[in-house]
Write a structure and sequence with these properties.
By secondary structure, the chain is of the alpha/beta class. Helices cover 36% and strands 19% of the residues. The chain contains 12 helices and 11 strands. The strands form 2 sheets. A 7-stranded mixed beta sheet has the order 7-6-5-8-9-11-10, with helices on both faces. The chain has a 4-stranded antiparallel beta sheet with strand order 1-2-3-4.
Length: 321
């Protein structure tokens, strides 16, 4: 486990600071073991008792596909910089909390910024893949729930949550939970899928009830077997706008045109990953633009950058708490 730096973990129920002992993180007042440390990672949740097992499985299977560092691409870096507008802020020496790190593909980009500390957690066992590929003394990783974040409220200069909220059982409550960790005057970046009639027409909402009855391995095997044919058929459908719309709605395979500088084989592998990601999560709950904006404002944030197209995302500053 990385050094705890200057920010101790807290009991997610009482917010009392925890001590590091041989058995794990302990509440010094009650002597209760709050989080065992397994494979160097504090575990605030049971390793297999979560709703994010599909993500843990996929990030270990496709361990490098979405990593700029290991794929030799820079599309994720360019995307995050454009969405967050972090380059407009002086981040030198600040402390950031990443809520839902997955396998660490966004984390590696956050580490490019001049943060003093990067604290990242995820509900899934994908954190094990993250610590295996990320080596930075500023990084602290844990396995925890977004509804019981193991840090005190109002303790981070920046809070970052990308592609996570819609995959929780209650996106509104999850958004409120991460908002509470931002210091007054601090910055929040949050992202969620946009709830709209066009988005709800996507193929994944038709086939998820079937795919979720299958094992993750079985879905992967089907994508391996039929992915090349579906990829070629998608290419034909998207030569025409109307048939392309039909493909987006009914073809059980993702279409990713002109994604970075990848060749056809790399695009096929990426499409398999994105299709798996679309079909297997337990929850997929997009949010309306009005609801997303209202929640941020109710939590005391002034929105400084906002995208109300699909997906929704915002960078906002906490002006009252």
């Amino acid at each position: 486990m990385s050094a705890l730096i200057n920010m101790p973990f807290a009991d997610p129920k009482t917010f009392e600071a925890l001590e590091v002992q041989e058995s794990g993180l302990v509440n010094p007042r009650t002597r209760e073991l709050i989080a065992p440390i397994i494979k160097g990672i504090p575990r605030f949740v049971a390793q297999e008792d979560d709703y994010a097992t599909s993500f843990g499985w996929q990030w270990k299977k496709w361990h490098s596909t979405l990593s700029d560092q290991r794929s030799g691409e820079d599309e994720k870096r360019r995307l995050l910089r454009a969405r967050t507008h972090f380059e407009e802020y002086d981040l030198t020496g600040l402390r950031i909390l990443e809520c839902g790190m997955g396998g660490g593909d966004d984390t590696e980009i956050l580490l490019d910024f001049p943060f003093a500390e990067v604290h990242s957690f995820d509900l899934s066992t994908a954190v094990e893949r993250a610590v295996a590929v990320l080596d930075d003394p500023r990084l602290v990783v844990s396995q925890a729930s977004i509804f019981e974040i193991p840090y005190r409220d109002r303790s981070f200069d920046v809070v970052f949550c990308h592609r996570v909220l819609q995959h929780t059982p209650n996106p509104s409550a999850a958004l409120r939970s991460i908002c509470r960790k931002v210091k007054p005057g601090g910055i929040l970046f949050a992202h969620v899928y946009l709830k709209s009639w066009r988005y709800l027409m996507k193929y994944k909402y038709k086939y998820r009830p079937i795919a979720r009855r299958l094992s993750h391995q079985r879905v992967y095997e089907l994508l391996e077997r039929y992915g090349p044919q579906l990829y070629r058929l998608n290419s034909l459908l998207h030569r025409n706008r109307l048939t392309g719309l039909l493909g987006n709605s009914f073809m059980p395979f993702e279409w990713l045109p002109n994604y970075g500088q990848r060749n056809d084989e790399d695009l096929l592998q990426l499409a398999k990953l994105v299709t798996f990601d679309a079909l297997t999560p337990r929850y997929d709950r997009p949010m309306s633009s009005r609801r997303f904006r209202a929640l941020l404002e109710q939590e005391g944030f002034a929105i400084e950058h906002f995208s109300d197209r699909s997906p929704l995302y915002a960078t906002a500053r906490l002006i009252k708490s």
